[in-house]
Every structure is written in structure tokens, then in C-alpha cells.
Amino acid sequence: MLLKKFEQFLESVDLKAYREKYRPIKIVEMDLPKEIQAINMLYQVYWERKKFLSFEKFYNEYLQEHRTEIDNFQKRIGMCKTCFGKGLPARIYRTWASIITQIHAGYVSESVFGDDTVKMSGELDHKGADFQVTYRGKTLNFQVKKKSLGREVRQEKPKSKNPLQGEFVDIKYEVPSGDYFENPRKKNGEYKLPYKRFRENKELKRFPNGFVVFTPYVFEEKKREIDHSLR
CA Rg, the chain, in Å? Predict the structure, then answer.
């Protein structure tokens, strides 16, 4: 039920409008201090509290919670308030779009492995796991390996000094440009390679608004593997 509700939320997002609004804005690109990063709050809102807020509502909550720290950082780096106020939402949007896609993978995984089998948090993220599954005594640390020409996609996480216990499982997330979906064929009628690869990929699907998300396939395969090993 939660998965369906979250998918309805993702499908309601006007990705095209957000991209047109925020893609050209690359003002606040420096590393943000931990106290104003949005990752912890994203997990708290969309995973722990199950509040599926629009980006605008999330950003307003983020500003209210971190206003003092944000103002202090803006003054410390010496950027004018107008420029910073224009660049910060674009920066937070890119994190938002990436993390809610990742959180969707957590909901899909939970629908396969069962209720309360999935953990997701800023702490796990910092240690290198996008989410963690505990199933039949096995611990799986899923890492989303993202491939994209766009800068909206977050870079691979550095390895933590305090490694997690359990098996690390890489799941690949390839995001072809929207142009391939709007114009998927070559002049000779054949599908262009990125679009063809995506069509043949059982692990991913694309919503009409452009969100690319994981299907249950990769998690079902891992579940079968564990079930078979414990027979």
C-alpha cells in the first residue's frame, strides 16, 4: 500500500518544470556543512514519517529547521544573500530528486522482503549503504550505482572508516536522457542504443513524467538466492 502511494506521489511530480527551473542554476556548488545538508531530513520525512511532501513543502520545512545554520553558512562563505537564496533551492532539489528515487527503491525492496526488513538513514548513507535489508538472518547493504550525464545524480559514496557488516549488493541505475524517450529511433527505424538497453532492462522502469525507478526484479532475484541457499 505504501509503495503504491509513494509511486502515485512520484508520478505527480512535474519533473520537466523542475529541471527547466533549476538545471541552469549552479551557484551553490561547494560542499555543504553537515548541519545544513538535507539528507538526514529527507530520510526522516519520506521514510520514517511517511510524509510525501512536494519539493516546495519539503524545502520550506528544511528552511524552517535549519534557518540559523543556513544564514551562518551564507555569511561565512561571503556570498550575497540574493545569489545564495537563488542557488540553494536548486542544490537541494538535486539532492531531493536523487534521494526520493532511492527511497522508492527501499519501498520496493520492503514489498519483496517483507515489512520491517529495510532500514534507511543518514547514518547508513554516510557508511556507504543506500539502504539495508535484513532477511532470514542475512544482512544486505544495497548500493545504487548511478550512471548519468546529468549532474542531478549524486556521486558514488566514499567508503566509510567504520564498514558495515553484511554483504554489499550493487544495483545499477542508468538514466538515459529524456531525448531518447521522446525520439527513440534512428533514421533507419532501429532503436537508439541507450533506449534499447533501457527497454531490455528488467530492473528499471520509467514513469510518464520521467522518473526512472527500480522494479521488484533485482530484489526478487536476491530473495530467491537467499531462500535457495537456506533450503
Answer: 19
The Cα–Cα gap between 53 and 47 comes to: 11
Residue 40 lies in domain: 2-229
Q: What is the pLDDT of residue 212?
A: 93
Encode pLDDT of 60-72 as tens digits: 999 999 999 999 9
Cα–Cα distances (Å) from 206 to 39, 175, 182, 195, 214, in that order, read 24, 9, 13, 11, 9
Q: What is the pLDDT of residues 69-119, one digit of tens each?
A: 999 999 999 999 999 999 999 999 999 999 999 999 999 999 999 999 999
DSSP code for 52: -
**What's the predicted TM-score (pTM) here?**
0.90
Please tell me the distance from the alpha carbon of residue 13 to that of residue 182, in angstroms, as a whole number.
18
In the prediction, which pLDDT does 162 show? 58
Cβ atoms 10, 30 nearer than 8 A: no
Whole-number Å distance between alpha carbons of 194 and 98: 20
* DSSP, res 164: P
174 CB-contact burial (10 Å; exposed 0-12 / middle 13-18 / buried 19+): middle
Rounded Cα distance between 115 and 150, Å, is 34
Specify the number of domains making up the chain.
1
